[in-house]
Amino acid sequence: MFDKLDFSNASVLVLGDLMLDKYYFGNVNRISPEAPVPVVKVNREEYTLGGAGNVVNNIINLKAKAYMIGAVGEDSNKSVIKQLLDEKQVKYHLLERDLPTITKIRVVGEHQQIVRIDFEEIKHLEQEEIERVKEYILTLINKVDCLVISDYGKGMVNFELSQFVINQAREKNLPVIVDPKGNDWSKYKGATIITPNLKELSDLLKIEIRNDDKEIETYGQEVREKYNLKYLLVTRSEKGMSLIAENEVHHIRSEAKEVYDVSGAGDTVVATLATAISAGINISDAIKIANTAAGIVVRKIGTAPITLDELKNALKVYRNRKLRHLQDLIVEIAMLREKGKKIVFTNGCFDILHRGHIEYLKKAKELGDVLIVGLNSDDSVKRIKGKDRPINRQEDRAELLASLEFVDYVVIFDEDTPYNLIKEIKPHVLVKGGDYKLEEIVGREFAKKTITLPFIEGYSTTFLIEKMRNR
């Protein structure tokens, strides 16, 4: 589905704390005679954009357009930042303040970070500076499809500017994504999405929230309502993400196989989410893409950004938009519910698709707006039907079902029953064949209504297989 991602027409404005990251890499062969510390013989230097600049880095690496509003100091590092932005063809407006450019120097010896040296001085913006930033925002807002507030608590994002961005975006029907800092979220009130990690959410509420679905649902909904947010997206390290909307909560599991370094993962999530939304991708698919991007960058060392090729290669999803993984599908369902759509669910092996199946599925679709078909995997069919089944592979069965105009989504499950699938989807209507008694239907407690539909006589996959064998 995402193998042809194209973000070339996407454009994002980032407002936030711009930093310069300097890396000195070298070898360690001795201890200093001056103090018991290693001596690093530097053989390589690297400069890169940090803080809100790392969000910009990720957007550019995804082949989208980025605009940056931030601040630099009156020093030589100002020129380095401008050069990096120019090289990436980022259009920017930077306040030049009588302060050091925020700079973090990391000394790395033998693949181990030995020390970090920070240059920064936090000073609130003067009113004249605030007014200039507002002018910058008004200059750029008509050129973008999405805005990001990247707050690192270094002074660039205050209440007045944050609310100015949110209000201007609301007037133009543009989404605002906030990467928050600190425990005063009043400045973010009314944003479209805020993306705290678990620690940031805990700090906000001044309690320790366990990395547990139920706790995150409870506290996340409280925060979403308090700050009038459309969505709260909590990033949960190895457990993935939790999307909290008005009437729905969905947990998207991490796609990272190994985690080496979570540095910069939040920037990547925000950048990828903003870029995908700017490209017209719906929120459920955008979150799926951002989750995949996060799974890539946590396997890298340091704040290395995502690349478009990496993202395309990692998106292990079906090309047919009707064929969905469960975690992807439940986010989509949340959006459908918001639109008042009635969800119908049924399931089966559908090994050899015949007229009986077609009529059954047609009638199921008539019971609502969206028909989701749960399809038994090959292993599941084999356990239920015997070692000689299925006749057709799960990929082929799924494609055939998806080709039917009255089937909206197909999701493959590996269990013997669709119990867990129904529990996650929670359909308005659960449909089964007429050979089932109502009390025997698995998962009916998760549906608002359960209905059985009669099959057409003379049509059965088992009968067809036997007929072919006896010829």
Automatic annotation (TrEMBL):
Species, as recorded: Desulfurobacterium atlanticum
UniProt GO molecular function: ATP binding; heptose 7-phosphate kinase activity; heptose-1-phosphate adenylyltransferase activity; phosphotransferase activity, alcohol group as acceptor
Family matches, as InterPro entries: Bifunc_HldE (IPR023030), Cyt_trans-like (IPR004821), PfkB_dom (IPR011611), RfaE_dom_I (IPR011913), RfaE_dom_II (IPR011914), Ribokinase-like (IPR029056), Rossmann-like_a/b/a_fold (IPR014729)
NCBIfam families reported for this sequence: cyt_tran_rel, PRK11316.1, rfaE_dom_I, rfaE_dom_II
Family statement: In the N-terminal section; belongs to the carbohydrate kinase PfkB family.
Region (Ribokinase): 1-319
Name under which the protein is recorded: Bifunctional protein HldE
Keyword RNA-binding: no
Residue ranges of every copy of the Cytidyltransferase-like domain listed in the record: 345-465
Catalytic reaction equation(s): D-glycero-beta-D-manno-heptose 1-phosphate + ATP + H(+) = ADP-D-glycero-beta-D-manno-heptose + diphosphate; D-glycero-beta-D-manno-heptose 7-phosphate + ATP = D-glycero-beta-D-manno-heptose 1,7-bisphosphate + ADP + H(+)
Biological function: Catalyzes the ADP transfer from ATP to D-glycero-beta-D-manno-heptose 1-phosphate, yielding ADP-D-glycero-beta-D-manno-heptose.
Entry EC no(s): 2.7.1.167, 2.7.7.70
Active site residues of this protein: 267
Positions of the UniProt region annotated as Cytidylyltransferase: 345-471
Pfam families listed in its UniProt record: CTP_transf_like, PfkB
Key words, A-Z: ATP-binding, Carbohydrate metabolism, Kinase, Multifunctional enzyme, Nucleotide-binding, Nucleotidyltransferase, Transferase
